[in-house]
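User: Hello! My lab partner asked me to get a predicted holo structure for this protein. The small molecule is zinc ion, SMILES included with the sequence. Please write out the structure tokens.
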Amino acid sequence: MLAPGLETIACNLCGSRSTKLVFTTKDYRFLVDDRDFSVVRCTGCGLVYVNPRPDERDIHRYYNNEFYNADESPAKALASVKDRILGMAAHLDRYPKGRLLDIGCYRGEFIYHMNELGWDAHGIEFSSRPPNLFGQSIFYGDIANAPFAEQSFDVVTIWAVFEHVYDPRHVLKQAHRLLRPGGTLIILVPNYNSLPARFMYHDDVPRHVTMFTPKTLGQLLEQEGFTAKSWECGQDVYGGSTRGWLNFLVKRLAGEPMGDIQAQNRSVERWHEFSRCIAGKERPIMKKIDDFDIWLAPRLDRLLDRLMLGFIMTVHSQKRVAP
Ligand SMILES: [Zn+2]
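Assistant: Hello! Below are the structure tokens for the protein in complex with zinc ion.
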């Protein structure tokens, strides 16, 4: 019997219901509740996802105001995501300016920036909770109901959103419908084939419901009429993903349970810093380890990125003219 608010689902990539447990975890970031979530791997195709997961009514509880930073002023909002937006915009430098659709556009910062640069940018946001801070053209709701003409966009972007989406295949179908033939789809997602995702359980469960690899995302794109053109694993949009790796390693060697490490490191205050506790005691040596880690992380990231083992991957793909 499933607890209320949970649903079990079939694999979004191959439809199979046969899975193997990979790990269990809790919402250590916002501590909304104490529920254990199972992350499973499809035995048919290898897709990794949360199952059972909160159903679509219940998942909203896990997106609180802290997640949306709903109270920030426009200036503060823009400043807080400036580097990220510049990193995203750099991905579009290689394309001529045209009509752009950003799926999961949050508070509209990116489309505001792109409109300033001369693009004709629009957005879709699944939740009506993030405020439209810059008065942009944003449709709130299911992408299937958005009032945009078919084949009317040159580029569609999905930045750090696809891992949150409940039906990734549906979103790709809709992106395909809205893109002109030959148009570009850019998706940035966490890479499950990475040190932070595999060993440090870096994914933000239960908000991240699907954990893609280049293989599983590539297959989904191919099936929905897209040809992948380039895969990149740079941490230019979300930097420093291996930060905390040494801290993690030392605690594991000291016998600290996985759940305790996650609980220490992933609470809101410690999202970007790491706990100095081992077995509940403050250890000065952990401060030194963290200092070294700050130096080490960008170097390790660059190495892993070259091997396509970085935590963040970005794929540029093209809508095929023929099916
Ligand atoms: Zn599958």
